[in-house]
Amino acid sequence: MNGTRLIIIALAMHANTVFAASADTTATAEHHSLWHSLLLESQHNPAFMLDAYAHSYSELSLYADYKHANRPLLYEFGTGDQLWEAAAKSYLHLSKRMSVWGSASYRTGRKHALKWNSTGDYLLLHPYVMGDTLGGDLHNERYTFSGGYAVRLGKLTLGTHIDFRAEHEYRTTDPRVRSIATDMTLRGGVRRTFRLYEAGIGVGGTFYKQTNDVKFFREEGVIPEYQMSGLGADYERFSGSNRSAYYKSTGILTDIDLRPTGDRSGIYVTANYRFAPYKRILPELNSLPLSTLYITNAAATVGWKHHGMVGWGLFGGISHEGRKGDEHIAGSSSGTQYRTIITLTMYHSRQNDYHIGGACSIGSSNVLTLELRGGYRKYAADYVVPERRMSFSKLYSALDAQWIRPFGRTTQFIWNLHTAFYANKNKDITMPYATMDAARTDLVNHTYDALTADYAMVDTDLRLFYAPQKWKGYGAFVSLSSGYTGSKMYHDTTLKCSVGITF
After folding, report:
1. For the chain, give me the number of helices (H) and strands (E)?
2. In terms of Cα–Cα distance, which of 259, 204, 14, 227 is closest to 116?
3. Cα–Cα distance, 260 to 262 (Å, whole number)
4. CA 423/CA 397 separation, integer angstroms
5. Which of 59, 73, 60, 177 lies closest to 117, judged by CA?
6. Cβ-contact 285, 336 below 8 angstroms
7. Which residues contact 16 (CB under 8 A, 6 or more apart)?
8. Three-state DSSP class for 11?
9. What is the DSSP string of 103-155?
10. Residues 184-201: tens digit of each pLDDT
11. Residue 40 has what pLDDT?
12. Three-class SS state of 263
């Protein structure tokens, strides 16, 4: 794919909206408001996007991101990255009964010092990835596109939305990793408006593919490429010389929402569910199905939101992620043909998060917003044979603050702050250390130490908008962000700057 062509298309798409959008301080404040985001979860249903914002707004931007850590938090994540991105987004009211929105982006850069991870989308596909002990830097290239449409038909509102991502990661030195992934989500939703409340239901599907291979050309020869299966274990029979894999998945999702109409105060409820099986296939062995990872995500939030000069809200919620891994045991080969003779469920992991919180917003133009939440997070994972177990739980608290300060109708200052602290309460690990080599022992212990550590984080962002009247609807902005995450053994620093135009 051609990144330049994608950006040109995005620019052309947004150029057609110049006269429909506004760059004044009212529009920019609304589209970047922390208080407004309190109900964002309901916007998973595209029918709620019809009047998600009162003002049209479009933005074109260039980003530069830098992250560096003193050591890998996890070996699979590396020690940091340097990324550059061009992005465009727009939200437009075509009429009182129709709205459209969309975005497009192109990102490129490098990720540094990854190890035990030769597969793209590690966070999505773990633990069923390929990995080796050598690793190295990775080149990254990503394209995204999204678009949606919502229309009101009497008391009903219909909406549809598409998200698409294509990502390419590769390395030009041994081990020469190459992964190409495509990920698409389609959503449809309906909303029914009553006198005081509106309720909606959404459904959709997910479609995922990835091709993944590793090659060696160095004079020193090859090293084993492991087909990982969880908690440091690997599928020993097909590890080593099998250095390619293919992933595919088709999943479903649904959500339900209830919230007050317009700017009325009242209760809001949102719940969503997502399920997808991810198959790992070895193309070099006549498309042998090696494993299937079943991922279940579910979340629910209940809260009360009060609008006014002093707005406030209270909320509580729960989220769950479950992973179940089936390994397909193959019989003896007949040429290159392998047949699955039995399927065993070998891996389980569960992560639950429980939280409560509150938020308040003071002012109408000069706005101060605070959001505080606290919660409890519990994680447990196990592998059946040989027995491996890892578990921990954490208490956490987080504070988000935002100050929006306009200077007339042409200039606006937005400051954001995020802080959080995670304190480990208990932990446990069981591993067959007597049969593990030094590299595998180091991987497991490093992961366990990182996941069970206490750590704190702080992020801040300063953004300045400028839109003088003589620019006829155009504006410009500059943003500077920095962040720090630290524990006893680990700390990282992030820096980000962006510039762009609004219209």
Report:
1. 4, 21
2. 227
3. 7
4. 9
5. 177
6. yes
7. none
8. helix
9. EEEEEEEEEEEE-S--SS-HHHHTTS-EE-SS-EEEEEEEEEEEEEEEEEETT
10. 999 999 999 999 999 999
11. 72
12. coil
Average confidence (pLDDT) per 10 residues, the chain, 503 residues: 44 40 72 86 87 94 97 96 98 96 98 97 97 96 98 97 98 96 98 95 98 90 93 92 94 96 92 98 91 98 92 96 96 72 96 97 92 98 97 98 92 97 98 96 97 98 93 93 96 98 94
And the tokens for 369?
């917003």
Model pTM score: 0.93
HSE (CB half, 13 Å, CA atoms) of 257? 26
Q: How far is CA 238 from CA 42, 48, 134, 214, 234, in A?
A: 44, 48, 19, 14, 9
What six digits make up the tokens of 406?
Answer: 């306009």
Residue 116 region by backbone torsions, left for phi larger than 0, else alpha for psi between -120 and 50, else beta? left
Q: How far is CA 452 from CA 79, 259, 391, 446, in A?
A: 19, 37, 9, 10
Amino acid letter for position 213: D
Q: Spell out a b/e string for 108-138, using b for 16 or more CB atoms within 10 Å of the CB, else e.
A: bbebbbbbbbbbbbbebbbbbbbbbbbbbbb
| CA 206/CA 249 separation, integer angstroms | 8
* Closest to 191 measured CA to CA, from 256, 99, 95: 256
Q: What does the pLDDT look like over 229-274, one tens digit per residue?
A: 999 999 998 988 889 999 999 999 999 999 999 889 999 999 999 9
d(CA 491, CA 67): 11
69: number of Cβ within 10 Å = 20
Helices within 167-304 (DSSP H only): none
Number of C-beta neighbours around residue 470 at 10 A: 7
Q: What is the count of structural domains for the chain?
A: 1
The C-alpha atoms of residue 106 and residue 339 are separated, in whole angstroms, by 42
> Which domain covers residue 68, as residue numbers?
3-502
Q: Give all strands of the β-sheet with 130-131 in edge-to-edge order.
A: 130-131, 226-230, 233-234
The answer to whether 318 and 303 are in contact (CB under 8 A) is no
Alpha-carbon distance 397 to 19, whole Å? 44
